Backbone:
């Protein structure tokens, strides 16, 4: 018999979305003097709210507010700063459902992920760095904060990337001016409300909204001491050029084209889960996504059959439905990019496969897609697609696996699947990637540093190492 | 089966070991994670109603106590046939499961209803006896009218690596079953690793078991979600490899409607529709039935009744 799951939508009533939002400067929501813009729900294309746009003057006001607050915040004992961060973490937990629903509405990611992955990690990050605030002298990077941090974050994990940036900055005694992505500003603005709820001193956190030009203004502002950016390698290069020759400290977390290496002796069922989680988690909008599957020849057929069967059970649709596995693509622009690169894959001679899957009429959607017969030289094996598209390559020997895995300008992450510990260690030792997952993928923990090799960026976020970027070493 | 060019995997302990240890491993963290994720599926309204009725029809209503009496077994059989006497549209359960000496009580009590009689056998629950005793135990249960036999494997032999002994015992019990269906209880709570669960599953299927069953209910942990997941993967792979379909029965620890529905979700998303039928999936339980009935009534009336409105046999 057929067992069909009835719709199980999470209620959106829990979150109160205002029709318009100002920026958050010096503890207050203020109008912007730049062009305002709309943020939409990518699953339905309905506008969610009108957002104030920042001008260069607004950015300047925000930086000045942060500078003023720096005097207060940096002078505060670490234990006192920790209290604020713990309070913020607890409020995030209390308001987790509200934040999760808002994140799914604005970003398009399934509520199961925003509820079970994003929000728990966001709170964990604040708790983790709250714990460091009064123990900085034991971290080995000194205890002196840098000053005002200008932070520009992407749309794929809006609130989580905010947490990665804001929590360590504040723990070390810096103040921040943060620019969320223009397609996903809502949870950052709700976070601003949480800062007020936690009585965070005005100016410690400032949020300016707008498109790339606002981010550029934050980065270029002469009174910013530290720049942190997560996003595309292309924009990362511009930022590096802009910051070059200044005293600003810089960390970049950029693109990736991670290899997920499956050896013949891997635990096949769990490897299949890992592949699915590696590339279809968050619609593949993950910089460390396992977008290149490298599978050992002798099990390739069997593994692909299992993988295809598994993909047939993925549930694509309403991000607020608790049973949805694949949500909406975040924007029309991103959807166009995914389509373009997939068509290039077809033209290059790779074979495209997707499970039968109904695509909603409105909104931005792309079915889970697997390309087989992919060569290293294909663009879909080299360029970051940032969507639910997996390129499958095979290898014969461990040497070949490592060679192919490292043959990319990127080096953010990699996965290795084998039941043989010696092979696991041999492989992990040779992979040029900031994170190597052993028999798992896309697993995050605030205690674990994250960052790239090569064109995936520099600097580390998370863990003790993540403090270095926010201390004057 | 054995020819000059292929090796019968059961021809010796060495070949059996080579085969079973050649199966892909199971990563515990990954299996636990997958089961936990499937446990978050939200089954509501029409889907919940459908799942409740399906779950009721899959229950092996069980009593396996030293204190069991003929009267208790008869009462349980009456409930198996009509789980909710006031509600004739409630489906009957799949089977009743009793000790061998009470099979003769159960058979007339369910005759003509379509409810099967299952008997545990082979020195249940420990399995610690000679093969002769186990075979006789089985034969007596079948002679008394059991449609299904739930045997336990010799976990001691399995853990000692004596796979051939376990295999041959299952083959012998299968022969003693005659037309009765054989469910092989792995007692996964004593097997300690998911690799062992997968190997024991394959061993039981190779030896001819019609069903593989997690537990006796006397050992904790019993039917956990990840163990059931691993066993479902095993029957799926066995069907693909051999063309023979084997059923799965989690038993022990399934107490609530939520537990039962999680099991159905596992089946649905691991092996699919083909196993969503009492012929291929059973829930070994007793107390879960009343909770299913209570949830069913809640769906019909919008209110919960007190536990006193559901019979305790």
Residues:
């Amino acid at each position: 018999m057929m067992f069909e799951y009835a719709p199980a939508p999470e209620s959106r009533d829990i979150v109160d979305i205002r029709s318009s939002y100002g920026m958050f400067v010096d503890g207050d929501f203020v109008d912007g003097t730049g062009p305002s813009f709309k943020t939409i729900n990518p699953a339905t294309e309905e506008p969610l709210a009108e957002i104030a746009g920042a001008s260069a003057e607004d950015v300047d006001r925000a930086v000045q507010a942060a500078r003023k607050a720096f005097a207060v915040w940096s002078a505060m004992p670490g234990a006192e700063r920790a209290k604020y961060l713990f309070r913020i973490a607890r409020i995030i937990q209390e308001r987790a459902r509200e934040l999760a629903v808002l994140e799914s509405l604005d970003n398009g990611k399934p509520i199961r992920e925003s509820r079970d992955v994003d929000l728990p990690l966001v709170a964990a990050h604040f708790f983790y760095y709250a714990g460091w605030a009064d123990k900085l002298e034991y971290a080995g990077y000194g205890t002196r904060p840098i000053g005002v941090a200008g932070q520009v974050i992407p749309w794929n994990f809006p609130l989580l990337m905010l947490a990665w940036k804001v929590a360590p900055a504040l723990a070390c005694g810096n103040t921040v001016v943060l620019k969320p992505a223009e397609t996903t500003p809502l949870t950052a603005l709700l976070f601003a409300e949480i800062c007020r709820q936690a009585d965070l001193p005005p100016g410690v956190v400032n949020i300016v909204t707008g498109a790339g030009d606002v981010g550029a203004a934050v980065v270029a502002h002469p009174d910013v001491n530290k720049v942190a950016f997560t996003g595309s390698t292309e924009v990362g290069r511009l930022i590096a050029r802009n910051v070059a020759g200044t005293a600003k400290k810089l960390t970049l977390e950029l693109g990736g084209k991670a290899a997920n290496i499956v050896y013949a002796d891997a635990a096949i069922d769990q490897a299949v889960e890992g592949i699915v989680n590696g590339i279809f988690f968050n619609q593949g909008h993950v910089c460390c996504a396992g977008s290149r599957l490298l599978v050992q020849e002798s099990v390739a057929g069997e593994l692909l059959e299992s993988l295809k069967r598994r993909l047939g059970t993925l549930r694509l649709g309403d991000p607020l439905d608790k049973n949805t596995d694949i949500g909406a693509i975040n924007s029309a622009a991103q959807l166009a990019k995914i389509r373009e690169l997939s068509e290039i894959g077809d033209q290059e001679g790779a074979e495209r496969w997707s499970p039968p899957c109904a695509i909603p009429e409105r909104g931005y959607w792309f079915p889970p897609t697997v390309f087989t017969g992919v060569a290293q030289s294909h663009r879909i094996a080299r360029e970051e697609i940032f969507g639910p598209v997996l390129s499958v390559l095979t290898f014969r020997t461990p040497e070949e696996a490592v060679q192919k895995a490292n043959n990319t300008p990127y080096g953010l992450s990699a996965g290795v699947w084998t039941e043989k510990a010696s092979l696991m260690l041999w492989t992990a030792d040779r992979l040029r990637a900031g994170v190597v997952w052993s028999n798992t993928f896309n697993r995050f923990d605030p205690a674990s540093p994250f960052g790239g090799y090569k064109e995936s960026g520099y600097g580390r976020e998370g863990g003790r190492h993540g403090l270095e970027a926010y201390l004057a070493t | 089966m054995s020819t000059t060019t292929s090796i019968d995997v059961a021809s010796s302990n060495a070949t059996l070991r080579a085969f079973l240890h050649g199966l892909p491993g199971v990563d515990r963290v990954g299996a636990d994670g997958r089961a936990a994720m499937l446990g978050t599926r939200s089954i509501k309204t029409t889907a919940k109603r459908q799942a409740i009725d399906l779950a009721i029809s899959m229950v092996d209503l069980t009593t396996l106590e030293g204190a069991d009496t003929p009267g208790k077994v008869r009462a349980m059989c009456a409930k198996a046939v009509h789980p909710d006497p006031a509600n004739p549209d409630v489906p009957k359960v799949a089977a009743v499961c009793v000790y061998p000496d009470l099979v003769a009580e159960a058979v007339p009590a369910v005759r003509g209803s379509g409810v099967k009689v299952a008997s545990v056998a082979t020195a249940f629950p420990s399995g610690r006896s000679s093969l002769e005793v186990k075979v006789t135990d089985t034969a007596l249960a079948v002679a008394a009218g059991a449609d299904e036999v739930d045997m336990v494997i010799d976990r001691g032999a399995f853990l000692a690596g004596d796979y051939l002994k376990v295999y041959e015992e299952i083959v012998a019990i299968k022969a003693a079953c005659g037309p009765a269906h054989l469910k092989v209880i792995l007692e996964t709570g004593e097997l300690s690793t998911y690799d062992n669960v997968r190997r024991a599953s394959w061993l039981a299927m190779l030896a001819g078991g019609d069903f593989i069953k997690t537990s006796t209910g006397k050992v904790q942990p019993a039917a956990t979600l990840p163990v059931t997941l691993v066993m479902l993967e095993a029957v799926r792979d066995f069907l693909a490899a051999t063309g023979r379909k084997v059923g799965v029965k989690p038993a022990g620890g399934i107490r609530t409607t939520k537990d039962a529905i999680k099991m159905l979700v596992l089946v649905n998303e691991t092996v699919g529709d083909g196993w969503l039928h009492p012929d291929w999936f059973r829930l070994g339980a007793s107390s879960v039935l009343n909770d299913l009935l209570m949830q069913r009534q809640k769906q019909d009336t919008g209110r919960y009744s007190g536990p006193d409105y559901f019979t305790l046999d």
Chain B has twelve helices and eight strands. The interface with chain A takes residues 24-27, 29-31, 33-34, 40-48, 50-51, 54, 233, 264, 268-269, 273, 276-277 of chain B (CB under 8 Å). Chain B has one domain: 39-303. The mean pLDDT of chain B is 95.
